[in-house]
Design brief:
The complex is a heterodimer. Chain A contains 9 helices and 7 strands, in the order ββαβββββαααααααα. In chain A, the strands form 2 sheets. Chain A has a 5-stranded mixed sheet. By secondary structure, chain A is an alpha+beta fold. By secondary structure, chain B is α+β, with helices and mostly antiparallel strands. Chain B has 3 domains: about 290 residues, FAD/NAD(P)-binding domain, CATH 3.50.50.60; about 110 residues, Succinate dehydrogenase/fumarate reductase flavoprotein, catalytic domain (Flavocytochrome C3, Chain A, domain 1), CATH 3.90.700; about 100 residues, Methane Monooxygenase Hydroxylase, Chain G, domain 1 (Up-down Bundle). In chain B, about 35% of the residues lie in helices and about 20% in strands. In chain B, α3 packs across α11, α13 runs antiparallel to α14 and α14 runs antiparallel to α15. Chain B is globular, with a radius of gyration of 23 Å. The chains are: A alpha+beta, B alpha+beta.
Chain lengths: ~240, ~575
């Protein structure tokens, strides 16, 4: 006979920095996703547990955490598909913990921002028609636009774990998204930022980021493409003697 | 007791970082004033990300006959003649420029073979009008605006929950907030405050809204003396997921029907042919939602209590290209392959047409220094909102709000709030931290069950009166809620603070629904099933002492040149 409850073991961290695990039993018929389990806990078993969430449909990217040792979105992790009744929930490990499962995501946003994530053009905007872009040109970068900034890739990345200055997978996928956009003219600025020690050359192409990404963005491949864009950029600089 | 808090000064304080708040921030900043945005979640996580179908704007890229006049007529007629004409006019006229601007900011759009922005058909839009990227338009909109905000010098406080607007005399001069991720209190001084906090779907049990749509701005503004309007108009989206329970209510985009999906009952009948022979599945949302509801009530529903929505005849390639998120959503959550199988769907609470009453051109409220934009504002959508008009709304009126507030700040001064107001508010927030408080989630559960059972898609006097009694009972219970723990990242404390706002929204909806003794747009009463010319009015809600007072006001008269564009109302 299968058990009627899931056993949640949730890593806690309080203001004094004390770390512990709390164990909660959650009836199986009350939840389908891990996020629902955590909400069940806060509403019925322990009000003091801190969890961050918002949309519940894997589009806002708020509820990233480690579930049974893997970075996942709690809202799209179906409890019954984990293959065990024991569910271990921990905060993302490459971020500072604010409290319990809530981490400080600011460094992730800062890195993303460094990659100049907006259209750069020499002409000023004139908003009386659209800039043309064919469906083929759109397809070029569409995949890299799917990022929901959940931060799972940075958690999965072994480099980011040891080198906090590494720009990281999401920011570089963001760079490629704009560099491949036919409307953009800012590649050279972005390549200057990521062509270096803490950029593309830091990546070892382990591919953990791409595996962790819930939206199929494939940052690992993005970084490979950027490395070749970067090389061309450097060559061009030499020939133009910039 | 003296309370500790951090003082912060700005020109425009924007509460809410959804599409309207961010667009307002850009407009305000570009007008040369200091702008500060606060949000109770993280940047880019607002409910706007959940919008799927698209932005309505009459670019005419696919149907060259489309223009702002047709969009204006569609909006006004489907709002069932109680929309504010000027807001509908501004929306229809300005939406195309706001889309072009967003596109030049870098937003992705699906394209026509010639490289223009592609547009899709949507309920009750005369022409193919919705500019979209797959079925994740809201995400792209918010990401683009976020990127624009990030490279401007706009100050941003995330996980900051505003608990009260501060006033001096009749003017709003700032706000008190708690930084959720640190537990610190802030006192904001601002020349102008823009409320852009979105809707209140969370007061219902089954909703497509994010868990954060708790009507915060309605409560803040109402308590500061702002008038609310048309609150009884709650939109039920015809198609929300019904299974499994955890995703009940999640949106199934109208794009499924726009791209060819049909509705079937358990007998396999395409029942919309009966309810709306001409527009069928693409009639306005109120009509399709009530049809779905009627089929379920008549015993022709699906095993999980919905109706079927089928697009499998369009083939896997088409579906995966046009509706990738829907494909993934059903596959991941429900184990249903929509390229082969039918979806089960049922109406879900989706949008509040009503909200804070605003001046169309500047979005200022009746309270000096206070502005509002987006779902929390009212007037544009009247009795029923067209799909795609909400994303257009937040761009058009978000921008106008930023401009309106910036203009105001140029003449306004910064005022010092009273210390006792701030300290009193901090003490109130802290008072929820206690061991003997009632569980706030119980109150929310009782409120949302009450709303779903008694103030649903079809309303009656008996049920509405029942609902009102319950709300008043919960209102007196609300101060007794409490949670354990401390001020830092305490979701239970946040729930305690949200409850009064949820109750303000609920009370207004119910009182308005009792007052409107007719059926119009989203408001349908089985005891008054007909539309009544005597109710071609707006309902205004005002705070008077501790009471909520209602007043019927005539809909503003449209100028002659616009009247010519509008199909006459029939009774």
């Amino acid at each position: 006979m299968t058990r009627a409850e899931y056993e949640f073991n949730v890593k806690r961290k309080d203001d004094g920095g004390r770390v512990s695990y709390s164990r909660y039993m959650v009836p199986k018929d009350r939840i389908s996703t891990v996020l629902e389990g955590l909400i069940y806990i806060t509403e019925n078993l322990d009000q003091t547990l801190s969890v961050r969430y918002s949309c519940r449909m894997e589009i806002c990217g708020s509820c990233g955490m480690e579930i049974n040792g893997k970075p996942r979105m709690a809202c799209s992790t179906i409890a019954s598909k984990l293959g065990t009744d024991k569910i271990r929930v921990e905060p993302l490990k490459h971020y500072n913990v604010v409290k319990d499962l809530v981490v400080d995501i600011d460094p992730f946003f800062e890195k993303y921002r460094e990659g100049l994530p907006y259209i750069i053009r020499s002409d000023d905007g004139n908003y009386s028609s659209e800039l043309k872009q064919t469906p083929e040109e759109f397809k070029e970068y569409e995949k890299y636009s799917m990022c929901i900034k959940c931060g799972l890739c940075l958690d999965a990345c072994p480099i980011a774990g040891t080198d906090p200055d590494y720009i990281g997978p999401a920011a570089m996928a963001g760079v490629l998204r704009y560099n491949l956009d036919s409307r953009d003219q800012g590649s050279k600025y972005r390549l200057e930022i990521i062509n270096g020690e803490e950029g593309t050359s830091r990546c070892h192409f382990v591919g953990e980021c791409s595996e962790a990404c819930p939206k199929g963005v494939d940052p690992s491949f993005a970084i490979q493409l950027l490395r070749s864009q970067g090389l061309k950029h450097e060559m061009a600089k030499i020939f133009r003697r910039e | 007791m003296a309370e500790k808090y951090i003082d912060y000064e700005t020109d425009i304080l924007i509460i809410g970082a959804g599409g309207a708040g961010l667009r307002a921030a850009i407009a305000g900043f570009d007008s040369g004033v200091r702008v500060t945005v606060v949000t109770k979640s993280l940047l880019g996580k607002a409910h706007t990300v959940m919008a799927e179908g698209g932005i309505a704007a009459s670019l005419g890229n696919l149907d060259s006959k489309d223009n702002w006049e047709v969009h204006f007529n569609d909006t006004f007629v489907e709002g069932v003649y109680i929309s504010n004409w000027r807001m509908a006019e501004l929306l229809a006229r300005e939406a195309p420029d706001r889309v072009y601007e967003l596109e030049q900011y870098g937003a992705l759009f699906d394209r026509t073979p010639e490289g223009k922005i592609s547009q899709r058909a949507f309920g009750a839009h005369t022409y193919r009008r919705l500019c979209h990227v797959g079925d994740r338009t809201g995400l792209e909109l918010i990401k683009t605006l976020e990127d624009q905000v990030l490279h401007r010098d706009i100050k941003f406080f995330d996980e900051m929950y505003i608990t009260k607007l501060l006033k001096k005399g009749d003017r709003v001069i700032g706000a008190v907030g708690i930084k959720l991720n640190s537990g610190e209190f802030y006192a904001f001084r601002a020349k102008a405050v823009i409320v852009a906090t979105g809707g209140c779907g969370k007061i219902y049990k089954v909703t497509s809204n994010s868990w954060e749509s708790t009507g915060d701005g309605l409560g803040l503004a109402f308590n500061a003396g702002a008038e609310l309007m048309d609150m009884e108009m709650i939109q039920f989206h015809p198609t929300g997921m019904v299974y499994p329970p955890g995703v009940r209510g999640l949106l199934v985009t109208e794009g499924v029907r726009g791209d060819g999906g049909i509705l079937l009952n358990s007998e396999g009948e395409r029942f919309m042919l009966r309810y709306s022979p001409k527009k069928k599945e693409l009639d306005a949302r109120d009509i399709v939602a009530r049809a779905n509801y009627a089929e379920i009530m008549a015993g022709r529903g699906t095993p999980h209590g919905g109706v079927y929505l089928d697009i499998s005849h369009k083939g896997a390639d088409y579906i995966k290209t046009k509706l990738p998120s829907m494909y993934a959503q059903f596959k991941d959550f429900a184990g249903v392959d929509i390229t082969k199988e039918k979806m089960e769907v049922a109406p879900t609470v989706h949008y509040q047409m009503g909200g804070i009453k605003v001046d169309p051109d500047t979005t200022r409220t009746n309270v000096e220094g206070l502005f509002a934009a987006g779902e929390v504002a009212s007037g544009l959508h009247g009795g029923n909102r067209l799909g795609g008009n909400s994303l257009a709304d937040i761009l058009v009126f978000g921008r106008r709000s930023g401009l309106g507030a910036a203009e105001y700040t140029k003449k306004a001064t910064l005022e010092d709030p009273s210390k006792s107001d701030i300290e009193g508010e901090i003490a109130r927030v802290k008072s929820y931290l206690r061991d003997d408080g009632r569980n706030p989630y119980e109150v929310i559960e009782e409120l949302s069950s009450n709303m779903s059972e008694n103030v649903g898609i079809i309303r009656t006097e008996t049920n509405l009166q029942k609902a009102l009694i319950k709300i008043l009972e919960l209102k007196s219970a609300a101060p007794k809620v409490g949670v354990r723990g401390d001020l830092k990242y305490n979701k239970g404390l946040l729930a305690c603070l949200e409850i009064p706002n949820m109750l303000t929204a609920a009370e207004a909806i119910v009182r308005g629904a009792i007052t409107r003794k007719e059926s119009r747009g989203a408001h349908a009463r089985s005891d008054y099933p007909k539309k009544d010319p005597n109710f071609k009015k707006n309902i205004i809600y005002k705070k008077s002492g501790d009471e909520m007072k209602l007043e019927l006001r005539p809909v503003p008269e449209m100028p002659e040149n616009l009247k010519k564009l509008v199909d006459p109302e029939e009774y």
